[in-house]
Amino acid sequence: MRVYLGIDVGSVTTKFAVLDENKELVTSIYLLTQGKPIDMVQQGLRQIKQQLPDDVDICGVATTGSARYLAGVIVGADLVKNEITSHAVATLNYIPQVRTIIEIGGQDSKIIIIRDGVVVDFGMNTVCAAGTGSFLDHQAIRLDMNIGEFARRALDSKISVRIAGRCTVFAESDMIHKQQMGHQIEDILYGLCQALVRNYLNNVGLGKDIQAPIVFQGGVAFNQAIVRAFREELGTEIIVPPNHELMGAIGAALLVQEEMAISHNGSKFKGFGVSDIKYHTSSFECKACPNYCEIAQLSINGKVLARWGGRCDMWERSSSP
Fold first, then answer.
1. How big is the CA angle at 73 (ends 71 and 79), to the nearest 5 degrees?
2. How many degrees, rounded to 5, is the angle at CA 247 between CA 242 and CA 250?
3. Measured between alpha carbons, how far is residue 108 from residues 133, 220, 281 in Å?
4. Fold of the domain built from segment(s) 97-240
5. Which of 11, 18, 76, 100 would give a disulfide with 270, using CB separation of 3.0 to 4.6 Å?
6. Residue 59 in 3-state DSSP?
7. H or E element: which one contains 19?
8. Phi and psi at residue 3, to the nearest 5°
9. 128 near 165, Cβ under 8 Å?
10. How far apart are CA 110 and CA 126, in angstroms?
11. Which CATH fold topology does 2-86+248-277 show?
12. Residue 14 to residue 41: CA distance in whole angstroms
């Protein structure tokens, strides 16, 4: 079996997707990053190996996500791509007519505008949590319920309560106030979902030409109450594709399949054995210019494998291969 591996390492979750030569999903892994991207990449590789036949041929590996460079060095990636490109490619593979992609993860969110199969605009939010999954997670914890129960009960809302959702701190204060006023918890929960949607559209989506068909993906797309809130706010159907939580990893796998077909080179994949190697990460402040960038580096037994994180490519150029 000839397959292609895509790895999407985000701040909250780490995803693996294995595609065959027909671009069909063979297997996948979905893990919580837990602030340990190296450990999760290694754990994911171990699990993927167990799910694949012994004679499988990994013909190409690509990484994406916020820790894509780190993951790329560890696995020996043939391709390292940004999240915008990876998500767009995966969505276009499943829904070629898409014109707007809404992607919301645990700690960041993005919007991708597509026209005639080409990305023409995008926006990202990595600063304010009020338009991301952590916004709802935080409120669910405060209400002593898991996010699954949160979503189910929010869907039972008959009359939503408007929550000030431009900031998580204000939202929590307003939610407490609404509880004290005697509003139903289901209505407050759905009000929080609507607040997330408003915050997303007023920040990430501000000034964007949002047109249907609209595809909603990322881990937050599991929450049907958020899907309903987007549908009501935008006044159109919201498409949640199969494997929506894996789209970054799937896109990376699709991209590396295309790359390997063009290059005709063998894969640089280091093999599943890298899951047993002990890596060390550290950082230092670059003083080559007034930006004072924090440079991250990965090493084994004192030997630096890679450096990244600067505003320029000075340290990437000087890194060991």
1. 80
2. 105
3. 8, 11, 23
4. Nucleotidyltransferase; domain 5 (3.30.420)
5. 76
6. strand
7. strand 13-20
8. -135, 165
9. no
10. 9
11. Nucleotidyltransferase; domain 5 (3.30.420)
12. 7
Phi first, then psi, for residue 297 (nearest 5°) are: -140, 150
Tokens in use for 96? 């070629």
Q: How many helices (H) and strands (E) does the chain have?
A: 10, 13
Q: What's the token pair of residue 229?
A: 């809130």
Output the six-digit token pair for 171: 């939202």
For residue 185, the Cα-to-chain-centroid distance in whole angstroms is 30
- Do the two domains 2-86+248-277 and 97-240 of this chain adopt the same fold? yes
pLDDT value for 320? 42
pLDDT digits (tens, 9 = 90+) for 80-139: 999 999 999 999 999 999 999 999 987 788 999 999 999 999 998 755 555 577 778 878
Give the pair of three-digit tokens for residue 80: 């390292």
SS3 of residue 146 by DSSP: coil
CB 165 within 8 A of CB 171: yes
